[in-house]
Specification:
The chain is an alpha+beta fold. The protein has helices spanning 43-58, 68-88, 136-142, 148-151, 192-195, 200-209, 213-226, and strands at 3-12, 22-26, 30-35, 99-104, 108-114, 118-123, 126-129, 175-180, 186-190, 233-242, 255-258. It contains seven helices and eleven strands.
Length: 273
Amino acid sequence: MTTSLVTALRSVTGPYRASNQDSVGCSTEYAFVADGVGGHVGGDVASWTVAHRLMSALAPRDARRMSRDELRELLAQANADLALRSARDADLAGMGTTFTGIFCGDDDVRVVHIGDSRAYRLRDGRLERVTRDDSLVQLMIEAGQLDEATAQHHPQRNIIVRSLAGRRRDPEDVTILDEPAAAGDRWLLVSDGVTDYLTDDDVAAMLADATDVEDAADRLVAAAEAADSRDNVSVVVCDVVAGDVAGADGGRPYRVDGAAARDELGTVGDLSR
């Protein structure tokens, strides 16, 4: 069964941050969120670079036909772009980003993940957190040192143990999962500017009650802002539908928001080697 995505995306700087370091993007075949690593100079450049490497590579081709190895290689290319830009500009040294994306297949949805941005799936009214946070507090939870409720407010909750940061090993740390595709599923890709302030029960209710993906995205952003989120707030809400909903001309247009929409952060030349 061929499937496609109907998607709404939002990325908001918020009142407590000077700039938006998150990038979000989508087409009818894939969607993603990338959160520039907090506290690192160039977090916005990092998420822009990964977003545009991905989208430039996928624009001429059907993402549904990409293998696991091809997706990992694409993230490796993006990671190499980060290393190149850091080498060219000392001010960007140490920049990095999370990445969480979904890619439609004929029978599955492929989840690609590194960092602490999250992918959730709502199916038949039940919300499942599909990804595992690559974070210090997640390790503490698994060691029995914290519970989920305490972890959400822990002072070290934003320390991540894996990211794309231009290091040789980073692509090996990317998790790739194949999940069964089902028309009617609603997926959420989200940065920690939302999940640090809303519970999974909050998220489930908003996704289930929303009339469509646009309404769901608006509800999530408004709720994070009402909860006084101190970070950038980024959400991508995707409904899985049967069939191919590519452009009428056969093209595969994509949309972006957040740092990825800022032309001053990079050029195609930053991605070419």
